[in-house]
Amino acid sequence: MGAGLAGRLRAVGHEVIGYDRNPDISDVGSIKEMVTQLPSPRVVWVMVPSGAITQDTIEAVAKELAPGDIVIDGGNSYVKDTVRRGKELAERGIRFLDVGTSGGVWGLENGFCLMAGGERDVFEHVEPALAALAPEGGYAHVGASGAGHFSKMVHNGIEYGMLQAYAEGFDLLHSAAEYDYDLHQLAALWNHSSVVRSWLLELAENAFESDPNLDKLKAYVDDSGEGRWTVLEAVERGVNVGVLAQPLFARFTSREENAFSMRVIAALRNEFGGHPVKTR
Q: Which of these, 60, 34, 42, 48, lies nearest to 126 by C-alpha position?
């Protein structure tokens, strides 16, 4: 996504200097060299995976910056870490925006949806860049520091639920062998004025076209953090997110062969109802 962001900015005339640990794709040899080539006040957009690498990268960038410079975290950071980092940077006079960024690998072509949290004047300073990255109506200042990443966290929690709904529906259709459904045909059909049409369904249509029974895939689904954080925040706030929580747990189950949790359910059903079980 970082490459997509840079490409979209350059396409409309913004100058971008990018650093990556991989020298084959980096414009410069170090973060220090990158920062020295930026005009003041310098704006550095950090786009790395969540966790320690985000912390390490922001610290490395901050060491090279001066008061008044701006750091943007466009990755999927946990909101509590984001708020803490914003305060730490402010103590050094460095301004900070958390920008929840959605659009994936299609962002370069279609634009990115951007949810910015932080001080309004910082948002306004970088707004020309945000406008270049987003389609019309696709970016906004959504609140104080942390608001961008909190809204992106919930956005991804909703995404988990939508993916699970499509997955379970197509699983049920696939099980109906007596009808021999063409899942690509149904996905394409539903994308024409049905109430469940969406971009995700368009992607499902593409997937079923290239691999009708998804035989090339393993039943393993990773999670990058936002689904977990959504559920944790809901627990702390006493908000019912049952529909958003279940897909997270389903992803955990997908990573196990002959999942123990499923074996427990089979055993209990056999105990209380005499339901048949399969043995190994």
A: 42
